[in-house]
Amino acid sequence: MMLKQRRLPAEERKIVIVRAAIDVFSESNYRVAKISDIAARAGVTDPMIYKFFDSKKALFVEVLTLTSRKTIEKFGIQNFITEDSLTNIENFRRVLKKMLLTYLSSMRKYRRELKIFYQAISEIDDPDIQQVIRGHYNNFASMIKPVFQQAVDKRILSGRLEPEMIAWDINGFMIQQNALFLADLYSERNADVLLTERMNSWFS
Amino acid sequence: MMLKQRRLPAEERKIVIVRAAIDVFSESNYRVAKISDIAARAGVTDPMIYKFFDSKKALFVEVLTLTSRKTIEKFGIQNFITEDSLTNIENFRRVLKKMLLTYLSSMRKYRRELKIFYQAISEIDDPDIQQVIRGHYNNFASMIKPVFQQAVDKRILSGRLEPEMIAWDINGFMIQQNALFLADLYSERNADVLLTERMNSWFS
Amino acid sequence: MMLKQRRLPAEERKIVIVRAAIDVFSESNYRVAKISDIAARAGVTDPMIYKFFDSKKALFVEVLTLTSRKTIEKFGIQNFITEDSLTNIENFRRVLKKMLLTYLSSMRKYRRELKIFYQAISEIDDPDIQQVIRGHYNNFASMIKPVFQQAVDKRILSGRLEPEMIAWDINGFMIQQNALFLADLYSERNADVLLTERMNSWFS
Amino acid sequence: MMLKQRRLPAEERKIVIVRAAIDVFSESNYRVAKISDIAARAGVTDPMIYKFFDSKKALFVEVLTLTSRKTIEKFGIQNFITEDSLTNIENFRRVLKKMLLTYLSSMRKYRRELKIFYQAISEIDDPDIQQVIRGHYNNFASMIKPVFQQAVDKRILSGRLEPEMIAWDINGFMIQQNALFLADLYSERNADVLLTERMNSWFS
DNA sequence: TATGAATGAGTATTCATTCAT
DNA sequence: GATGAATGAATACTCATTCAT
Predict the structure, then answer these.
(1) Cβ <8 Å between D193 and C165
(2) Which of A99, A170, B54, C56 places its Cα 20 to 30 Å from the Cα of A84?
(3) If residue D67 lies in a helix (H) or strand (E), which one and from where to where?
(4) pLDDT tens across B57-81, in order?
(5) Three-state secondary structure along chain B?
(6) What are A12-35's pLDDT values in tens digits?
(7) Which of C123, C137, C180 is opposite residue D185, by nearest beta carbon?
């Protein structure tokens, strides 16, 4: 068991602060969260926050950026869809569905990050924040598209729907399920059925 | 020549305040917007706001409630889907698509209301606000469901997908397009193609 | 005896605040003085200060401006030097000396204002503050000059030294005596002797 | 090629810090200047400052003291007024005038130090600072007085005006010109004319 | 010796809300 | 009924200074 260290190297301290920020932001929201709460949660005093971040907003943007990166890594379609799974449409379909359901079921675990991400829409007029949000959705789509492109190239998919279109459909599906989840209106069954419908459309 | 009216009947003045609130909230967000800006925009003094609303939050909730009501009225599926259009699947499909596209294209006009609605997600922990949000999505689905139920009853729809499921699919589709729209990532072509795909699934 | 009024018309309240500011600024200095001290002294809360002044600096500039105006009014050379006193050099000289000595002896009474004025030199890089300071010295000189010009016109003064020059000499004399006074190095006798010397030079 | 020196003898490092302090204080003022800026300018870390000075104020007082000493040395009346120049009033007068004009024209070069000195007036309530200021003016006068005393002793000056009085007149003249200079109201011509007038009074 | 890490204490400014008139 | 006057309560951010290593 590690006691709380009094002095930490900068790198580690920064991580501790970001983690605290995720906690505190998600427990209320960007505007309500107080720097002093974040500091307390991180076990430091307020000024330490400002050693690493120029402002509360800069910290929020960092949290957003990191969350975006982590989400996309975690989604990690490329880890699921191996060369192997692309040899055969049934394989591809099975693996894809498993992946999407896995993602959906991870919402519960990443509710905090999810909530912060949706908070950012309230601040969408801020250029820095807008950039992270748009970057995130674009990156998400960009990660998915080539997988479907490969499937088309390998003739296991008809190409009737452009890979880009499918990518944005997946993106959109996640957005809607996330939103419903945050409003406590998420239904696993609904999500499952609707996902199946969509897959039918992608794979027809 | 129109002078600023000195005295307005209470009901009208309340409407003026709510309109001002929509303007001001949407120009920044619930936390940033100032009561004094809303009052100025409405042409009243700050304390007047408190004549009509107990608090800033109460005003926000009112705006939310009214916006929800208006959105649902405007969507007005019952106005589109007449008895007549339910006699024949092609009619139904055509009218439905027209309605959904109309709604999509109205996003531009109602961007202000849309933005406020998404702001509420930052405040989802507040019970009053959560209630409006959930109520809105539920009402939206409840409005759509019976139309499809009728279609099933009238045998112009197979009933393979439950009307409730379709209702939530439509609901979700709107949520995702709204979110993309607010992030300036809305693509009319994408929306159109993906909507067509979904309709195929509902009507198969 | 007047009890401290709870509610005061804006005009009066502003005066109370400015007076409090003079007290508080002079008891320490512009940077050390706290808005909350000024507010407390004025018998109001901090936000009231901001109803009248945009910032602490704005309040300081107001104090400076008012002090300048008051000082110049109080010096009021035009009140001393009447048509009458300009008929004859001895009269003029006597009245002038009396006036200057009066001013010098008023330093004690106006120490607070004096101190604030010299504080401004620490802030001379601020354009607003610089403007007040320069304006003050220029106004001071501009007030004195025409009196000596009249004396020259009326031939009771030789004009060997330009009126403008004399004006700046008086101005400078006050500056030096003020500075010494603030450093507790003021000597009435010295001031008196040196003033006599200068008058000899002006009137020769 | 000069690399930043890693280790400097303590005395030199102290000098470097004081120089940096003069720069930084004069660029804003005592209250606004930051220790970290001074440290950065001196090429040391913040805590190093505290190796040499107990506090920011102590550093300011040191700067003041050194500036006072340097100013007085630089004024160095004793360097100008040699035995030789005291044999004859014309010589004395010429040399004195040259010296005072030299001092005046050096204001431009020593603006930084001058500015810091006037900043101290804002802090005149601090006993340490008051002591330096008063000490400075007193030393200044004390340096000048004996020169005129000698002139009186040598009968090249009448003694009508006591040497002490003349000393304070010179002192005051410098104070006023410094103040006008800092307010950007310095006029070389005015200074020259007024100085001549005063010399007439001292030498009559 | 030197410094990176850390903080105590402070403070100008903001704004929703109240209330006397 | 309407408002000008007033405030309680809050909070992001700063900086001189200390101390463990």
Answers:
(1) yes
(2) A170
(3) helix D56-75
(4) 999 999 999 999 998 888 777 667 7
(5) CCCCCCCCCHHHHHHHHHHHHHHHHHHCCCCCCCHHHHHHHHCCCHHHHHHHCCCHHHHHHHHHHHHHHHHHHHHCHHHHCCCHHHCCHHHHHHHHHHHHHHHHHHCCCCHHHHHHHHHHHHCCCCHHHHHHHHHHHHHHHHHHHHHHHHHHHCCCCCCCCCHHHHHHHHHHHHHHHHHHHHCCCCCHHHHHHHHHHHHHHHHC
(6) 999 999 999 999 999 999 999 999
(7) C137
Instruction: Please report how many Cα atoms fall inside a 13 Å half-sphere around the Cα of residue B171, on the Cβ side.
Output: 28
CATH topology of domain A56-203: Tetracycline Repressor; domain 2 (1.10.357)
Q: Which CATH class is domain D58-203?
A: mainly alpha
* DSSP conformation class of D112: H
Backbone angles phi, psi at C15, to 5 degrees: -60, -45
* Chain A closest-CA separation from residue B32 CA (Å): 8
Closest alpha carbon to C167 in B4, D168, D193: D193
> Which one is the CATH code of A8-53: 2.60.40.1180, 1.10.760.10, 1.10.10.60, 3.40.50.800?
1.10.10.60
DSSP character string of A16-30: HHHHHHHHHHHHS-T
Q: Are B179 and B107 in contact (CB under 8 A)?
A: no
What span, in angstroms and rounded, lies between the C-alpha atoms of C62 and C21? 10
D182 touching chain C per CB within 8 A: yes
Average pLDDT, chain A: 91
Please name the fold of domain B57-203. Answer: Tetracycline Repressor; domain 2 (1.10.357)
H/E segment holding residue C134: helix C127-153
